[in-house]
Amino acid sequence: MRLASGRHVEASDNLSTAAIARRLPRTLSQAARLGWRTDRRAVLALLACQIGATALTVTALAATARVLAAVFTGDDIAAGLRENLTAVVVLALAASGRYLLDACARAAAARLAPKAVREADLEVITAATAAELVAYEDPDFADAHAAASDGAEKTGDLILDAQLLTSAAAQLAAAATVVTVLHPVVLPLLVLSVVPCAWGAVRGARIEHAAHHRNLADSRLRSVFRSYSTERNTADEVRAGTMAAFLIRQYRLVSSRLEAEQLRATRQALMVQGIGDALTAVGTAATWGVLVLLVSSGRMELAVAGTAALAVRTSMAALATTVRAGARLFRTSLSLDDWARFLAVAKPWTTRRGPALIAEDGPQVITARDVSFTYPGAYRPALEGVSLDLKRGEVIALVGENGAGKSTLARILTGLYLPTSGSVRWDGVDLADADPDEALSKVALVPQDYTRWPLAARENITLGQPRPDGDPDVHAAAEAAGADGVIAALPHGLDTSLARSWWGGHDLSGGQWQRLAVARAFHRDVPVLVMDEPTAALDARAEHRIYTRLRALAEGRATVFVTIGWPTPASPTASSSSTKGASPRPAPSTNSSAKEPPRSSSSYSSSRKTDSPWRP
Ligand SMILES: Nc1ncnc2c1ncn2[C@@H]1O[C@H](COP(=O)(O)OP(=O)(O)OP(=O)(O)O)[C@@H](O)[C@H]1O
Predict the structure, then answer these.
(1) What is the ipTM of this complex?
(2) Pocket of ligand 1 (CB under 6 A)
(3) What pairing do the DSSP bridges indicate for beta strands 365-373 and 383-391?
(4) Which UniProt keywords apply (predicted)?
């Protein structure tokens, strides 16, 4: 199995080194802004220490030159040192001060780094949660999101590397100044020897990063195989289905693809870096050769050559650190670029609908007209030409085969998805123009795949939004959903943690979880209630309880009930007293296909013949 790489990967592959280098300042300034937002004092301390350390490096090297001149030029070294005592003291103070300030700068960077990671990650979370729900159906969004999470993690490295780079670059600048003062020909040689090394390091980083991008889809696939093989949710099926060998084979297959791609990239990167290092070795040899030549031809005094040799060594060490830190910074900035890229990819998906508000006591009526919907990247619409009306106090049942579009329609009626064409209006307000937070605050949804929140039982029902009366309301909702017995059996009642993978966490059965999921919808005192197969995992008694309560619960609410209960044609049928007809596909709408007549909540329980009218 192979996942297609998305536009995101291709766009990254096409980025040239020059293009990325041009974007580097922007990426760095983004990191600086992040740092500034998270801890200004640490940023200021970092800057002050860095500037101070640079000034002290220059001072120390200038003092070094004077001390070395005293040592090499005079016959009496001790006398020379005594005469230049100030330079010796300055050298000692500047050198130790520089180490101190360097350590302070590193400490400030270390303090800043985790905060920057947190802030960058929060930006990813904010962008993801602000995006339209349908964005999650777009593979590019998913790939960009995966890459962004890595990128956010690297923000900390970026700050540490930036500190290291500026520190090394300051040392280099100071040493290079001294070398230039001693003899102007040495500096160009130094530069020539470092350029190939820098080129190799940067080019190698780009090759490896491009491979990382090509591997993104496979990396995700492998981690899915890994988690499906080992996680608790799937552990029983893995064993009962004797799937372990198959999953391990798939894991190996994807891993070998990943490793082959990685190996190819590493070979290329090593080759490029090797060429750069070899050229640098030639340049270094030339630098030393020129120094020897200058001394042997009498164009440079031995004392000056000694100082130059020291400065060249310092420069070389600083250059090596600068190149290493620069290459790492470059690689990190590529990851940070992924982070920034996700924010850019997510931006157009940001929910921006309009300021229209639904009346405080609304919606009284939900009207869908000619609604069609196609998932991003899908070849055919999931819904086509659906029209219906749903009033407060009515229950509408969406019935149809698997894949007929019931869940999609339910999400469109609540405004979770916007139709590709047609409109959904609440009291005449098009949901495409309505403030989504305000509209969704009027919706309670029991999704098909409800979440087992690793929280206390109370928060699993209130979703962190307790009603003014507190626990009595929680118990009332639990009672309506048949979850009161579940809570009563918990060791600490509503305070019991349901984070089953943690110590002290309590586990529930599938049906018990579903009762909680239904209770959470009942707890939300809102006018629109959507239940997507809410009784699939319930026993007959619990199902009966929900159905018998539904009438009371639907009182004053617009309720959508999704079920596959009836044997019906391939399209879902919307049944309610006011339904105009719903048909997700070209297939026709209709109530006529339903075995139960359309009805509203008021006629619902009285016309039932079985405990579950949806499953005759
Ligand atoms: N993320 C997606 N991307 C592309 N197509 C999708 C996506 N999700 C659903 N579909 C397609 O949309 C159609 C309707 O799906 P939907 O989940 O609404 O059906 P359903 O009637 O609720 O099915 P079920 O009874 O199995 O829950 C299906 O054909 C499905 O393949």
Answers:
(1) 0.95
(2) 137, 375, 378, 382, 400, 402-408, 448, 564, 572
(3) antiparallel
(4) ATP-binding, Hydrolase, Membrane, Nucleotide-binding, Transmembrane, Transmembrane helix
